[in-house]
Amino acid sequence: MAYIMAIDQGTTSTRAIVFDVTGRPIAIGQQEHRQIFPRAGWVEHDAVEIWTNVRQVIADALATAGITRHDIAAIGITNQRETAVVWDRATGQPIANAIVWQDTRTQDLVDAAAADVGPGRYQVKTGLPLATYFSATKVAWLLDEVDGARARAARGELIFGTIDTWVLWNLTGGPDGGVHATDVTNASRTMLMDLETMDWDDELLDAFGVPAAMLPQIRSSSEVYGVGHASSPLQGVPIAGILGDQQAATFGQAAFDAGESKNTYGTGNFLLLNTGEELVRSGHGLITTVAYRLGEEPPRYALEGSIAVTGSLVHWLRDNLGLIASASEIEELARSVDDAGGVLIVPAFSGLFAPYWRPEARGAILGLTRYVTKAHLALAALESAAFQTCDVLDAMVADTGRPPAELRVDGGMTANHTLMQIQSDLLGAPVVRPAVTETTALGAAYAAGLAVSFWSGLDELRGNWRESHRWTPSIDETVRERRLSRWRDAVVRTFDWSA
Q: What would the pLDDT profile of 314-323 be if each residue is shown by its tens digit?
């Protein structure tokens, strides 16, 4: 068996990618799914549609590669994190649409949980500030708002999972003996797991009103969880790796050791710094999370800076304002001007994530004059992604005292050379893109392959990593500091808008 398949279930699409032993992608199947916005601040996905798409992309990838399931040694799963699905154990039918990580409907529950203690109430135990971002309040909302759901959960009829759990359960048989499990990286994003014990915590379950019987078993990131069911397009193939998408990207970048980091540019940006076996608690607005766990080895931890809106700002310019016809046009438009014309865009569409954690902030375009054109707005949108990354990296340096020698990057926006040069300029450090940019799927493939000895160990995976492009700073420190200072002033002006 010559290949590993990764199922990459993301915020906007589902992909299946087949990798060879060198970590090279040889075939891809991809299907987009609907983004459902019932009200302002609400974001939902149809979990049944996602599972249908999983089956389709698996078939497409196999057909494109000209192989069958018998050529696949193992399957890895990576997924949009925090998105919550609750479904009927007996029928496999979700009780409602999945509530997506971007959704802010549970702010009242978050405020009530914070009470007089503040957003750090459970942070020592979970590594997470109280926020709508995480899964716990989403599950609580579904149990409270869907008719009869809480009583059904109490009777053991309903189960919960993040998207990895939903995909795994269905691949392994669903109602017919499906495996109900998750890995430590996804569990660490629910706000229900203790980072030290690596288990569900009774105090947290009580606080959020989530019955323990609903929860999946927490497993490592690299082990055989089960095999494809007879009803699955991958019948008999071991499912052997699970990593949340940002941890998977870190793993795919071969950032296995303490001090190594990566930044993913997607719907949002996610910067992770591996802290090894040391559980580092942030004092500067970052999340402490699990980076990965291989089998019975000790878990590895990370600091993470989560930025809600970067690539989705480009989509907003396309879909809401009509400034571009496709996302790929933004670079050419931005390059048509020398600077952003004094404009700064702070895209706090649903508040600000790291390092500010200001749910009441709202987006703003500052510095508008009659001189400004859509080209200036395009460039300002790219600069916004780079500025926000600088904020997070500064927080990481403050927490660890270690400025990065370089920043490894991945994700769709890294194809934009203009953005990558802006990022290097504002960081004052090199930005490096790998030859294989499908690092999220690759990380899941690596985790699965290690579990079935497709790869011998981390050193072999390190040997697969190759540099594709490097950007180096082209502005001096004085200019850099002036631009960053102006950005930080703009951010503060977005605070308290919805208070």
A: 999 999 999 9
CA distance 6 to 28: 10
Alpha carbons 368 and 76: distance in angstroms, whole number:
47
Q: Are 270 and 264 in contact (CB under 8 A)?
A: yes
pTM: predicted TM-score of the whole model, two decimal places = 0.87
Residue 182: left if φ>0, alpha if ψ -120 to 50, beta else—which one?
A: beta
CB atoms within 10 A of CB 328: 13
Q: Residue 207 CB: number of other CB atoms within 10 A?
A: 16
Partner residues linked to 15 by β-bridges: 8, 30
Q: What is the pLDDT of residue 55?
A: 95
**Under 8 Å between Cβ of 180 and 169:** yes
Q: Do residues 135 and 61 lie in contact, with contact meaning Cβ atoms separated by under 8 Å? A: no
For residues 472, 310, 489 and 133, what is the CA-based torsion angle, rounded to 10 degrees?
-130
- CA-wise closest residue to 416 among 452, 386, 374: 386
Cα angle value 100/443/217 (rounded, 5°)? 60
**Under 8 Å between Cβ of 173 and 229:** yes
CA distances from 166 to 58, 141, 147, 186 (A): 16, 19, 22, 12
Residues 6+ apart with CB under 8 A from 466: 434, 435, 436
Distance between CA 67 and CA 61 in Å, rounded? 9
pLDDT 10s digits, 106-130: 999 998 988 888 888 899 999 998 9
Residue-wise pLDDT for 49-104, tens only, equals: 999 999 999 999 999 999 999 999 999 999 999 999 999 999 999 999 999 998 98
DSSP state of 480: H
Q: How far is CA 123 from CA 120, 129, 188, in A?
A: 5, 5, 12
Alpha-carbon distance of 251 to 441, in angstroms, equals 10
Distances (CA, A) of 431 to 399, 467, 471: 21, 11, 5
Per-position b or e across 251-285, b if 16+ CB within 10 A of its CB: bbbbbbebebbbbbbbbbbbbbbbbbeeebebebb
